Amino acid sequence: MSAAAGTTTALRVAGRTVAHCVTRPELAADHSPRPYLHPVTTLAGRAVTEVLPEDHVHHLGVSVAVPDVDGRNFWGGRTFVRGRGSVELDNHGVQRHDGFKLCDPDGFVEELSWTAGGERLLAEHRTVAAVALTGTAWALDLTFSVANVSGRDLSIGSPATNGRPGAAYGGFFWRAPKEPAAPEVFGPAADGEEAVHGARADWVAMAGDGWTLVFAGATAPTRRDPWFVRAAEYPGVGSSLAYEERLAVPAGETFVRRVVTVVADGRLDRDAAAALVRKAVAL
Predict the structure, then answer these.
(1) How many CA atoms lie within 13 A of 55 on its CB side?
(2) Backbone φ, ψ for residue 83 (5° rounding)
(3) Angle at Cα 116 formed by Cα 115 and Cα 122, nearest 5°?
(4) Going by C-beta distance under 8 Å and a sequence separation of 6 or more, which residues neighbour residue 220?
(5) Above 80 in pLDDT, residue 151?
(6) How far apart are CA 226 and CA 96, in angstroms?
(7) 282 to each of 12, 215, 233, how far by Cα in Å?
């Protein structure tokens, strides 16, 4: 069994398996073990996720990962500390799969506990659905509802809010496969990594060798979160929970985000990406 192996469940669209959810991965503690989706594929079978890549071994396909929950690391790897930089700390948390409320071929509803240092900090209710769009495209609809069950006020941060400009990762995150050429990235009115990274836009697209991913915030709070985009260093797209300031999560309160991702064969242009996103979010 590989380092990332664990209990899995499959998602299917039009009779084809398009994703596997690894619910209980066997991972080192400093990877911040958590459920993730991998492999995710296009309808033609091309893989569009990667796990345990050499450049960032804690990247796990499609997951919800947060580098700073009140000082606890649910992202994996080193922690950025103001005045010290990226340091290795024994502060990693675990997202434990508590069970499925529903598990069908085209989706599931999952309950999770975010624990660190023996303490349950957050309880998450996650809904994932695979939706058919066309003969060459489908959509992954992922909603996470996270409640503060610690009994005290918490806040969510990122390396950016801790002093590292431009590194506001944390939240929904999709690690795509690294290819010989960097993928193309674009938004509704912008082209290139520099233009789309940090932008608040309805959607952002990443196009690689024979595939395109189009990410859309499907609720108003999600659309207010800027996009975190990497292409030249490695291919990854996320939605930033803590871009300019920490996200406060008072005791007993819940925050919710929903990201819909179009998974398409071939390279989509801007008009085709926008049309598929509109269809996916409306379903």
Answers:
(1) 13
(2) 85, -10
(3) 35
(4) none
(5) yes
(6) 27
(7) 20, 14, 33
CA angle (142 as vertex; 15, 169 as ends), nearest 5: 130
Calculate ∠ Cα 185-190-194, nearest 5°: 65
Cβ atoms of 201 and 36 closer than 8 Å: no
Residue linked to tokens 């590292």 = 164
pLDDT digits (tens, 9 = 90+) for 154-192: 999 999 999 999 999 999 999 999 999 999 999 999 999
| Closest to 17 (Cα-Cα) out of 52, 37, 43, 38 | 43
What the block records as the tokens of 233 is: 């260093």
CB 187 within 8 A of CB 204: yes
Residue 189, classified by CB atoms within 10 Å of its CB into exposed (0-12), middle (13-18) or buried (19+), is exposed
Which tens digits make up the pLDDT trace of 53-108?
999 999 999 999 999 999 999 999 999 999 999 999 999 999 999 999 999 999 99
Task: Report how far apart the first and last C-alpha atoms of the chain are (Å, whole number).
Answer: 38
